Amino acid sequence: MTAHRPTPIPAVLRKPLLACLAALAVSMGLAVATNQLRRDADATLNDLTLRLSGIHRQHEETLKEAADARLALRQQAELDRLGLKSSVPRLQLMGGIDAALAETGLSDLHYTLSPLQPLDDAPLLGLSTVRLDGSVPHEARLLALLKRLEATNNGLFLPLHCVLARPTTDAHTIVKADCEATWLGLQPPA
Length: 190
Prior knowledge:
Alpha-Beta Plaits
């Protein structure tokens, strides 16, 4: 038996065949390089997507903080309009009430002042109950006292009710007063 010998490739086909093999090798190299570039591009895309979502979150937080700041500025302007420019310590408030009592000649009128309680809806504001009890020589003096307390700076004095009674046993006391009011002021920071 004779061995089969491959037929030689004609010279005319050798150059195109070598060119095809070279093109195939270059194509495979380009495919490998393109695949690596695509993986790198996907990794870069994922990284940029994470960073962009972080920037979006930060932007939303900044918008919320800006809205909160605008609300706080509007509330501060409203407090300024009401005359609430700063927090009033309890002793200073008591001194203001004592001064109003002395100015109106009602130093014998007793008062109690509850601690400032924060409001739920407006944590910067607090309410304190003021009770006035005692005798006054005339209703007009009591009205003058209430007006004087309403005009006090750094707070809003709101009379809620007054019960006036004329005692029959004491000739010097014309009117017995029992009044309750609310003091609205800025809550000092804790």
